[in-house]
Design a protein that fits this description.
Layout lengths: L14 H15 L6 H8 L3 H5 L5 H20 L2 H4 L3 H18 L1 H8 L6 H26 L9 H18 L8 H16 L13
């Protein structure tokens, strides 16, 4: 898909602030039920001011979903996800996904509510499935290396792991308790202790 070049924003109304507001309203009311008139009213601008940044509401949705997905896929390109035992790479991806969720909470929340009702949503779901496949392959590799218990299907393990990560969108609020690293420590400690084989020791950093 060809991406239109970003347009210069008017003073006080950047594309980022527009996206932040649009995502908040999409989550609150649902994408289909949100009109451009409502977005303009929430921002205190005219619709033409919104069209100065984007050509349509669907482009706002695409940009929002891409922000969450691009951040998740960037975790897969980090050194910790590319080298070393598969179990360590899997832990890195889980920790990185928690960091993405806490940093991009509204955008990830919107992503998790996508049901494929449009071409943009279907594309986002396709990218989510690709991410899930990569994680499943990591679980399978860790099982083959003897670090993950073999009595649970790798696809099920992957779904359970990221079902736990994704559930954070329901209750986690930045600035109220655990920061991203402490939250990742807690999640890894509780999930990986049951995932690893009895012969595979839990690394000290996971017990902090």
């Amino acid at each position: 898909m060809t991406v239109a070049p970003a347009r210069r924003g008017r003073p006080g109304h950047s594309l980022d602030s527009l996206l932040d507001t649009a995502v908040a309203v999409f989550i609150e009311r649902g994408y289909e039920a949100t009109s451009m008139d409502e977005l303009a009213a929430r921002l205190g601008v005219t619709k033409s001011a919104i069209y100065h940044h984007v050509p349509s509401k669907v482009e706002l949705l695409r940009l929002a979903l891409d922000r969450a997905l691009n951040a998740l896929f960037a975790v897969l390109d980090e050194p910790g996800a590319l080298t070393g035992p598969a179990i360590d790479r899997l832990e890195h991806v889980v920790r990185g996904s928690v960091r993405v969720l806490t940093a991009q909470l509204p955008f990830v929340t919107l992503l998790l509510r996508v049901r494929g009702n449009s071409a943009v949503e279907s594309e986002a779901l396709g990218r989510r499935r690709e991410f899930d496949r990569i994680v499943t392959d990591l679980v399978r590799a860790a099982e083959e290396e003897g670090d993950v218990r073999p009595d649970v299907d790798p696809a099920v393990t992957s779904r359970l792991l990221f079902g736990t990560v994704n559930s954070l969108t329901e209750w986690y609020r930045p600035g109220r308790g655990l920061d991203a690293e402490a939250l990742a420590d807690a999640l890894v400690t509780t999930t990986f202790s049951g995932l690893r084989t009895a012969a595979a020791p839990v690394p000290p950093e996971a017990l902090r």
